[in-house]
Amino acid sequence: MAQKVLVALDQGTTSSRAVVFDKAGRMLAAHGVEFPQIFPKPGWVEHDPHDILETQITALRQAVKLSGVDVEDIAAIGITNQRETTLLWDRETGECVHNAIVWQCRRTAHYVERLMEQGYGDKIREKTGLIPDAYFSGTKLAWLLDRLDLHERAERGELCFGTVDSFLAWHLVTGRPHVTDATNAGRTMLFNLKTQDWDDELLAMLDIPRACLPQVVDTAQVIGTLDPAILGRPIPVAAMAGDQHASLFGQACLTPGMVKNTYGTGCFMLMNTGEELVASRSGLLSTMAWRIGGKPTYALEGSVFMGGATIQWLRDEMKLISTAAESEGMAKSVKDTGGVYLVPAFTGLGAPWWDMYSRGTLIGMTRGTGRAHVVRAALEAIAYQSADLMEAMAKDCGHTPTQLQVDGGASANGFLMQFQADIMGVNVVRPRVMETTALGAALLAGLATGVYGSLEETAAVWQRDLTFEPQMEGYHRAQLLAGWHKAVERSLHWAKD
Ligand code: ADP
Questions:
Q1: How many CB atoms are closer than 10 A to CB 436?
Q2: Given Cys at both, which of 8, 164, 181, 400 links 438, Cβ 3.0 to 4.6 Å?
Q3: Hey, which of 263, 386, 418, 434 would you mutate to test ligand 1's pocket, going by the most ligand atoms within 8 Å of its Cβ?
C-alpha cells in the first residue's frame, strides 16, 4: 500500500491542531491555531463556530504543507475533539443558530438541579454512566431549544444538534453527513450506554426531539471523504473520538485493566474495562472507551480539577516559581515537604470526594517551611489526587492495575512522575509520542481504512520512552497517604454556611 500517511484533526478548547503521522506513528508535522474564548457572563463560555471551523481547516492545510507529504499519500483523516461542547445548526444552510456552548459553561446548572429534584439522578447515572452535570451536552441543547424557542423547528427536522466531531464532519465531509461517534454521544447525557442508542426516556426528560440528533456511528469508521476543496483530494475521514478516548487508544490501552492519565490543566484518568460496563461505587463515570465493528468497549473515567493548574497557580498567583518547569528542580531541592500538604480544592473536589464546598488548604507548616516545600507539596498533590482516582478504579473493577501510562504537559516533570510511581506503587510509563490524543485519532482512522490490519497492529505503534519504577517503602507510602487523606478531611465542607 503506497498511501501510509495519517492525519489527525485535534479540535481542542483553546486551539485547533492538525498532526501528520507516518504508519509507524512518527510525527511528521503539526500545526495549531488558537482561537478566542467568549465569556458573555460570569460562568458562561462560548466559541464562535466559524472560528472552530476556520482554525481547523487552516491547521490541516498548514500541517500537511509543513510535512511535505504528497496529498496523494494521505490514507485517512481522524477527528478528535473537545468533548461535550454543543452546537445547533440549520440543516438547510449549515449556519449555527447560536455560538457553541463550551463544556465548561455553567449556564444550565439550574436544569440539572431541576432534574435532580424530579428524581432523575439515578436513572441518568444508570443509563448514561454519568453523574448529572451542566458539563454534559444534554442540558445545553435543551437550553438552546428553550431559549431560542426552537422546539417546533427541531421537531420538523430543520435543525441539527452536534458536538464538535459532528459539526466538523458535517462541514468537512462531502454530502454533509449528520453523524457523531459513540464516545462523543456518550457525553451528552442522552445516550444509553447499554442499548448504544439515544434514550427516549432521557430525551423526553429534557424535551429534546430525536429528529435533531445525529446518527451514532463507530469510533473507527469511514464516514465519507474530505471535501476536495480543502486539500484538493477526497481523502477518507475515517474516525471520530472524544479527546480522552482518543488518548486512551493512542496510549494503546487496548486490554481491560489498562489505564492512562493525562496531566494537563486538569488530569483525566481512563481505565479500559472491556466489554463490561462497570457501574462505579466511588463516584467515577462510566463511559465509552470506543466502539469498533459495532462492538462497544467501555471505560471508567475520573478527573482531577486542579492538575497542572495548581502549578500555574504557584507561578501566576503565588509567584513562587517563574516557569512550570522550574517546579521540578525546586521540589528536588528538599528531601520532603517537611510535613506540608497542599489540597488544591480551589473549585471543590471531584471523585472520589465529590465535595463542591471543599476549598484549597495548605496545612502542616512549621517555622522552617519554605518555598520549596510548598512547591513540592503542590506537585505531590497532583500525584495524590491521581492516586485516589486509581484507587477508586481498582475498587470498582476489583483489581489493581500494574502500570499507569502518562501524557500531557505536566508529565514532563520527572519528579512528579517518580512520586506518582512511588505513591501508587505501580510503574508509571511515558511513551515516545506524547501527542497521544492525535495519535489515537490517526490510529483509529488507519484501522478503519486498512492501514493497520488489526487492533494489535495499532498497539504495536506505541513505544515506551521512560519507566518510573516505585522505590518507596510500603510503610512510608502508607504514612504519606494517611497524611494526605487527613489534609483532605480538613479541606472538606469549608465553604458551606
Ligand atoms: P492543556 O491541554 O490542559 O492545556 P497541557 O497538556 O498543555 O494542558 O499541559 C499544560 C499544564 O501542564 C499547565 O497547567 C502547566 O502548569 C503544566 N506543566 C507544564 N510543564 C510542567 C512541568 N514541567 N511541571 C509541572 N507542570 C507542568
A1: 26
A2: 8
A3: 263
Number of Cβ within a 10 Å radius of residue 28: 17
Residue 460 has pLDDT above 50, yes or no: yes
In angstroms, what is the span from residue 324 Cα to ligand 1's centroid?
7
First vs last Cα of the chain: how many Å apart? 66
Mutate to test the pocket of ligand 1, among 311, 327, 413, 420 (most ligand atoms within 8 A of CB): 311
* 336-388 pLDDT tens trace: 999 999 999 988 888 899 888 899 999 999 999 999 999 999 999 999 999 99
Contact partners, residue 282, CB within 8 Å, separation at least 6: 351, 352, 392, 393, 395, 396
Please say if the pLDDT value at position 3 is more than 70.
no
> What is the residue whose three cell numbers read 431541576?
114
Interval between CA 413 and ligand 1 midpoint (Å): 9
Q: Angle formed by the axes of helices 109-117 and 137-147, to 10°?
A: 100
Task: Say how far apart CA 225 and CA 231 lie, in whole Å.
Answer: 11
User: What is the radius of gyration, based on Cα positions, of the chain?
Assistant: 22
Burial of 412 (0-12, 13-18, 19+ CB in 10 A): middle
- For residue 232, how far is its CA from the centre of ligand 1 (angstroms)? 36
Candidate of 16, 37, 104, 265 to mutate for ligand 1, largest count of ligand atoms within 8 Å of Cβ = 265
The residue whose C-alpha atom lies closest to atom 13 belonging to ligand 1 is 308
- CA–centroid distance, residue 193 to ligand 1 (Å): 32
Report the largest interatomic distance among the alpha carbons of the chain, rounded to a whole angstrom. 69
How far is the C-alpha of 37 from the C-alpha of 194, rounded, in Å? 35
Residues with CB under 6 A from ligand 1: 264-265, 308-309, 311-312, 324-325, 327-328, 408-410, 412-413
HSE-up of residue 386 (Cα within 13 Å, Cβ side): 37
Ligand 1, atom 25: nearest CA belongs to which residue? 410
Task: Render 346-399 in DSSP notation, one character per residue.
Answer: BTBB-TTT-BTT---EEE---TT--HHHHHHHHHHHHHHHHHHHHHHHHHHHSS
In 128-275 the beta strands, taken as DSSP E runs, fall at: 159-162, 179-181, 191-192, 197-198, 215-217, 220-225, 236-242, 259-263, 267-274
Beta strands in 113-235 (DSSP E): 159-162, 179-181, 191-192, 197-198, 215-217, 220-225
DSSP 397-408: HSS--SEEEEES
User: 86: which strand partners?
Assistant: 101
- Given the CA of residue 309, which atom of ligand 1 is nearest to it? 14
Location of C-alpha cell 484501522:
447
pLDDT tens digits for 275-324? 999 999 989 999 999 999 999 999 999 999 899 999 999 999 999 999 99
